[in-house]
Amino acid sequence: MPIIKPVRGFVPKIGKECFIADNAAIIGDVxxxxxxxxxxxxxxxxxxxxxxxxxxxxxxxxSVLHTLYEKxxxxxxxxxxxxxxxxxxxxxxxxxxxxxxxxxxMDDAEVGEGALVAAGSVVLSRTKIGAxxxxxxxxxxxxxxxxxxxxxEMNIKIARNYLMxxxxxxxDATTELAENALEVKAETGE
Length: 190
What we know:
The chain has 190 residues and is α/β, with parallel strands linked by helices. It has helices at residues 148-170, 172-188; strands at residues 3-5, 13-14, 19-20, 25-32, 37-38, 43-53, 58-59, 64-66, 74-76, 81-82, 87-89, 92-93, 98-99, 104-105, 110-111, 116-117, 122-123, 128-129, 133-137, 140-145. The protein is globular and about 40 Å long.
């Protein structure tokens, strides 16, 4: 079961048709839109300030979202993909953006609509990434412009794929297979 924990009087609010992996943690002042997926080992820690997530956002395995006490918040738009092992700390991510695997996005940074942050990049505090820009490196620097329609199409496709993947974990047939496997294991003593 995922950890969904109130703290300081803030109770996480989770939209419709969301998938939250068994070992994900959603804590405190977190508001999530509809059809989001929060994957294995991910932590959304809204204990010290607000985390707001739009619709159809996927936050992949091992990612951590946190903020600065009374200073920074996290705002994530719609159809955003956050890759595996990403750290977002008090930043704003606009619609259709993609944050690559292992990237770090620091406090008061802003990632524009349809922008791409390459895997392993470090976006320093207060950096402003414009709409449809690709940034990479540590610290991240502007690389090139991305064609707006291609970026939007790619990010909508990724968001829809993650919605499909999440259905695999909530499908009745998958649940039945898992229950049968547990019964076999119990019977055989494995």
